[in-house]
Amino acid sequence: MSPVILFVSANESAPWGPSETNWALAVQHWISLGAELHASVKGWDPVPGELAAAEKAGCIVHRRWEAPDAPHREPYELPWTEYEESTLKSVQPDLVVVSQGDNYEGLGWMEECRRQGFPYVAYSNSAADFEWCVDSVAERLAAAYDGALASFFVSEGNRRLTERQVGGRIANSRVVRCHFKVPYDANPEWPAAGPPFRLACPARLDPTCKGQDVLFEVLADPKWRGRELSVSLFGAGPHERVLRALRAELGLANVEFAGYTTDVEGIWRDHHALVLCSRAEGLPTVIIEAMLCGRPVIVSDVAGNAELLTDGETGFVAAAPVAACLDEAMERAWARRDEWQQIGRRAAQQVRTQIPPEPIALLVQQLAALVP
């Protein structure tokens, strides 16, 4: 008999994101191997395209439509809809995969799995050193991770931070790699030689996590205004208006809002390097993609941002997501701008020693091995 697997997306803050893509791709791959796949997601209208693709592939989707007048609950608590009609009871899964955008938001789901006796796996896509649960919640979270068959993290940095935030070691933890949206053998041509030198910042327009405001602060310095350098922001998000206003206030003529694109390889045909000053992350797919495409990266040392590269050899690491640190890393990169193509070639070689060609297939393989 085929195993019955339930993926729970604990994310309720946005219709879609990289964390959702990871589990949706895993669902489709597992269906192709013959398993019965279900997914519990917050109801979104319109339906995100990747969720529609998973549904078309055969995933049975259970949507959570919470009433507008539902009582307030913390984001880590079980949705009210589960008290009204339990997805766990109706599906009777052999394994539950609790997918969390942040490392705490699936707490209520994990506790409910334990209460009803369903084996579960915790899968965390991000963590932030500025988000700590109070002791009572951290204690519950530690117990929830301890009760999981395994706890998956997309970076070693996320695993270490989560252990600090719950107050102890997570014995059953492991690191898994995420998807990427360029061919594994991607090799786009090097852009026309600068000047101007073109940096790309592909990231959700959300300074809380992605730190575009820090990048703007650096670029506003007179020395950067006088250099032949441009920055393109690729992406959409809830803070576009305020970021455009900040660009106007600072007079950053060399910053372009390039919009959202699915042609990731195309970004790197036109840009020489990546810059990303994240405040919170997992392991950004944009770093993997840039390195696969042979581009150097300039990143803040947050979560898994620096795990794939060697500072000064395959990229440049800012010690923290603050302007002084980003300026220092960008200054080192600028001094070696004539070497960027060679640095990018080394980055392409290095990333392929750490990221497998089929990370989602390996994720499903590890999950399938845990089915009781």
Please tell me about this protein's structure:
The chain is α/β, with parallel strands linked by helices. It folds into two domains: 4-180 and 356-368, 3-Layer(aba) Sandwich (Rossmann fold); 197-351, Rossmann fold (3-Layer(aba) Sandwich). The chain is built from 16 helices and 13 strands. Strand 6 (150-153), helix 7 and strand 7 form a beta-alpha-beta unit. Helix 1 (18-32) runs parallel beside helix 2 (49-56) and helix 5 crosses helix 6. The longest helix has 15 residues, at 18-32. The protein is globular.
What keyword list fits this structure?
2 domains, 16 helices, seven-stranded parallel sheet, Rossmann fold, single chain, six-stranded parallel sheet, alpha/beta, 372 residues
Major sheet: 7 strands, parallel
Largest sheet, order of strands side by side?
A: 3-2-1-4-5-6-7
> DSSP strand (E) fraction?
15-25%
CATH class of the largest domain: Alpha Beta
Number of helices: 16
CATH structural fold name of the largest domain: Rossmann fold
What's this entry about, in short?
The protein is of the alpha/beta class. It has helices at residues 18-32, 49-56, 80-84, 87-91, 107-116, 135-147, 156-166, 207-210, 212-219, 222-225, 240-250, 264-270, 285-292, 323-335, 340-351, 359-368; strands at 4-9, 36-42, 60-64, 95-100, 120-124, 150-153, 173-175, 197-202, 229-234, 255-259, 273-276, 297-300, 315-318. The protein is built from 16 helices and 13 strands.
